[in-house]
């Protein structure tokens, strides 16, 4: 099974050796710039143990976050996996877990946290450090197929987000030992690709090395704006995006990175 077919079937696939040494260097420098000069939403998410830095939507002031998609290999890879004729950057998300970090990210689904929906979506999780299987993301294979959107929850309490969440499916029980739960050891240059609907979690980082990654979220043709009845992440409406339900997404906020 090739990578595109596996992505369509499982909702997740690992693609090896996507980024060369030059792109990895440029991406690492972009992450360091982001950490040295965070945007308005950059912060340490850890309450104890090693730090967990997160920030997003900085492509317009740190150009290589956009360049790696437009000039580098990520835009074309996203198109191939989604079967899309046009790819747009929804946003990039820097995620750095320092050694000894104890902040595990619980099982969740990205789609209900976003102000977007559409038939073609993919996140490309790009590691800048070697990540062993035990420290890598876990995915529930096939959980994207029915396109159900599950209850968005707060990561620390697992309580539903404030607002009318009756439109969502109840969050499912997940057997972490099921054969359907998969994870992948990855090296710099590899990419973990998964659908916005695919259920996943992320362990803490108990190792003695950093775990730097950038998750690039892409959308294909047919994407539309969704006015969620609760807060969204990134908080595009708070950033100044003024759209109505089902509006097309503006190019200046969500730039095209590949078309063919």
DSSP helix count? 5
* CATH fold-level topology: Jelly Rolls
The CATH top-level class label: Mainly Beta
Major sheet details: 8 strands, antiparallel
Structural class: alpha+beta
Order of helices and strands: HEHEEHHEEEEEEEEEEHE
Total strands: the figure is 14
Poorly predicted ranges (pLDDT <50, ≥5 residues)? none
Helix content percent band: 10-25%
Fourth-tier CATH superfamily name? q2cbj1_9rhob like domain
Please state the overall shape, judged from the principal axes of the Cα atoms: globular
> What is the count of structural domains?
1
Distance between the termini: 24 Å
Gross CATH architecture: Sandwich
Radius of gyration: 17 Å
> How much of the sequence is in beta strands?
25-35%
| Averaged pLDDT | 96
Question: Which helices and strands, and how do they pair?
Answer:
Elements: H1 3-10, E1 12-15, H2 21-36, E2 43-44, E3 52-56, H3 64-70, H4 74-82, E4 86-97, E5 105-108, E6 116-117, E7 121-127, E8 138-140, E9 181-183, E10 191-194, E11 200-202, E12 211-220, E13 224-225, H5 236-239, E14 256-259
Antiparallel strand pairs: 1-10, 2-3, 3-4, 4-12, 4-14, 5-11, 6-13, 7-10, 7-12, 8-9, 8-11
Describe the structure.
- This protein is of the alpha+beta class.
- The protein has one domain: Jelly Rolls (Sandwich), CATH 2.60.120.
- The protein is 17% helix and 25% strand.
- The chain contains five helices and 14 strands.
- It has helices spanning 3-10, 21-36, 64-70, 74-82, 236-239, and strands spanning 12-15, 43-44, 52-56, 86-97, 105-108, 116-117, 121-127, 138-140, 181-183, 191-194, 200-202, 211-220, 224-225, 256-259.
- Strands 1, 2, 3, 4, 7, 10, 12 and 14 form an eight-stranded antiparallel β-sheet that branches.
- The chain is globular.
- It starts with a helix and ends with a strand.
């Amino acid at each position: 099974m090739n990578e595109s077919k596996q992505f369509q079937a499982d909702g997740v696939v690992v693609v090896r050796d996507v980024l060369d040494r030059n792109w990895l260097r440029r991406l690492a420098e972009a992450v360091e710039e982001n950490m040295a000069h965070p945007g308005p939403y950059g912060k340490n998410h850890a309450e104890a143990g090693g730090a967990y830095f997160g920030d997003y939507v900085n492509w317009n002031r740190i150009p290589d976050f956009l360049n790696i998609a437009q000039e580098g290999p990520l835009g074309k890879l996203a198109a191939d996996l989604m079967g899309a004729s046009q790819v747009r950057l929804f946003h990039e998300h820097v995620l750095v877990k320092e050694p000894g970090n104890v902040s595990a990210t619980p099982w969740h689904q990205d789609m209900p946290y976003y102000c977007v929906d559409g038939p073609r979506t993919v996140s490309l999780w790009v590691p800048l450090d070697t990540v062993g299987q035990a420290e890598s993301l876990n995915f529930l294979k096939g959980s994207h197929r029915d396109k159900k959107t599950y209850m968005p929850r707060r990561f620390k309490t697992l309580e539903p987000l404030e607002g009318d969440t009756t439109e969502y499916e109840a969050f499912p029980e997940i057997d972490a030992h099921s054969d359907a739960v998969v994870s992948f050891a990855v090296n710099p240059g590899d990419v973990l690709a998964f659908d916005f609907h695919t259920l996943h979690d992320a362990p803490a980082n108990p190792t003695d090395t950093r775990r730097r990654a950038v998750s690039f979220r892409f959308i294909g043709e047919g994407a539309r704006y969704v006015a969620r009845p609760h807060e969204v992440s990134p908080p595009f409406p708070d950033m100044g995006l003024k759209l109505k339900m089902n509006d097309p997404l503006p190019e200046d906020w969500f730039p095209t990175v590949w078309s063919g």
